[in-house]
Design goal:
two-stranded antiparallel ribbon, single chain, 44% helix, 324 residues, five-stranded parallel sheet, 7 strands, Rossmann fold
C-alpha cells in the first residue's frame, strides 16, 4: 500500500466493495425470481476496480458508466434503496423506475448514467471534462469501459479529443477478458490496451483490478495530472469476471478451470488480508460492515417489492430537458 488511508477511508472502501458484492448477489436472486424486468449485468469480481477508481472522487466529479453499471453507481455513492427501486422499475427509484438496470443515473452524485452502448461513455465524459476545464473547477470526468469498448471508434475519437483539448478526462478500461462472449485475446488487436491508449499522447498504465490499493494508487496519479490541468490519463484495470455477460448466461465459451481461476481473485479477500495483517482494521470490524450491508439490502428489497410502479401519467415526463 503506497498510499496510507485513515481508518474512516478504509471502512468506506470496504463498505462500498461489500455493498457491490452483496447487492449484485441479491440482484442475481431477484432476477431469477422474476422481480427484475429486462436484463441484468452484474459487476461481481470487479468491486476493487470501481471502488479504487471512485475513492477520491467527489460528488462534483463526473463518471460515465457501462451496461455493467451497478458497481460504478455504488462506488460513486449512489443510494442502495434508490438503486433497488430503479432496477425493479418502481416509482421512487433514482430515475423514477424509468431507467432500469442499464440506465441508472444520479446527477447529485456525479453519476452521468449507465449506458448500454459499448463505448458510449467516453464522448460523454470528454464533454463533461471540457465543462470542468472551461469553468476552471479543478474537477474531472471519468469514462468507464470494458475491453470491448477499447476497440470502438467512439473511444479512440474521445481519447484523441481529450489530448488535443487538454481535457481533465480519465479513461478507465476494465479488462475482464471478454467483450460480451468474445475473448479479448482474440478481439483486441494489440498486446497492451494501455500502450494503445498512450499512443494518443497521454500517460497510461495497467493496474491489478482485484487490488483496491493498486487501483487507487494509479487513480491518484491520474487525478494529480488531470486536476492540475495537464490533461487526460488512461488506466487499464485487469479484472476477473465471475459470471457471464448477463445473469443467466451459461458461459459455454469458458472452461471450469478458467472460472475457478477468476473466482480465486477476490478483491474483498485481498483487502481484508492486507488491512488485518497491517492491524489497520480487524476481522470483527469487517464482519460488522458485512452484516450492516446485509441488513440494508434486505430492507431495500422489501421496500422495492412493495413499491408501486410509476403512474401512467408519468409516461411523458422526464423525456426532454429544457433550459427555459
Amino acid at each position: 500500500m503506497q498510499l496510507q488511508l485513515s481508518r474512516e477511508e478504509l471502512v468506506r472502501a470496504y463498505r462500498r466493495m461489500t455493498s457491490i458484492r452483496q447487492f449484485e448477489e441479491r440482484i442475481e436472486k431477484e432476477f431469477a425470481l422474476g422481480n427484475i424486468p429486462g436484463f441484468a449485468h452484474v459487476y461481481l469480481g470487479q468491486e476493487a476496480s470501481g471502488v479504487g477508481i471512485c475513492h477520491d472522487l467527489t460528488d462534483e466529479d463526473w463518471i460515465g458508466s457501462t451496461h455493467r453499471g451497478h458497481g460504478h453507481c455504488l462506488a460513486k455513492g449512489c443510494d442502495i434503496q434508490g438503486m433497488m427501486l430503479e432496477i425493479m422499475g418502481k416509482a421512487g427509484g433514482l430515475c423514477n423506475g424509468k431507467g432500469g438496470s442499464m440506465h441508472i443515473a444520479d446527477f447529485d452524485r456525479g453519476m452521468l448514467g449507465a449506458n448500454a452502448i459499448v463505448g458510449g461513455a467516453p464522448p460523454i465524459a470528454v464533454g463533461a471534462a471540457l465543462t470542468q476545464k472551461l469553468k476552471k473547477t479543478g474537477r474531472v470526468a471519468v469514462a468507464f469501459g470494458g475491453d470491448g469498448s477499447s476497440n470502438q471508434g467512439t473511444t479512440f475519437e474521445a481519447m484523441n479529443m481529450a489530448v488535443v483539448l487538454g481535457a481533465p478526462a480519465i479513461f478507465v478500461i476494465e479488462n475482464n477478458g471478454y467483450g460480451e462472449h468474445t475473448g479479448a485475446d482474440y478481439a483486441v488487436g494489440c498486446d497492451s490496451i494501455a500502450d494503445r491508449a498512450a499512443a494518443f499522447g497521454m500517460p497510461a498504465e495497467t493496474a491489478d483490478g482485484a487490488n483496491f490499493f493498486d487501483v487507487r494508487d494509479a487513480m491518484a496519479r491520474a487525478l494529480e495530472r488531470a486536476r492540475s490541468g495537464e490533461g487526460p490519463y488512461t488506466i487499464v484495470t485487469e479484472c476477473p469476471r465471475y459470471l457471464g455477460h448477463f445473469v443467466g448466461d451459461p458461459q459455454p465459451y469458458r472452461t471450469e478451470e478458467e472460472l475457478a481461476e477468476a473466482r480465486g481473485r477476490d478483491g474483498l479477500k485481498d483487502f481484508r488480508a492486507r488491512v488485518t495483517e497491517a492491524n489497520l482494521l480487524s476481522d470483527a470490524d469487517l464482519d460488522a460492515i458485512e452484516a450492516e450491508i446485509a441488513r440494508e439490502i434486505d430492507e431495500a428489497v422489501a421496500v422495492a417489492l412493495e413499491a408501486p410502479f410509476p403512474d401512467v401519467d408519468a409516461l411523458e415526463t422526464d423525456v426532454y430537458a429544457s433550459a427555459y
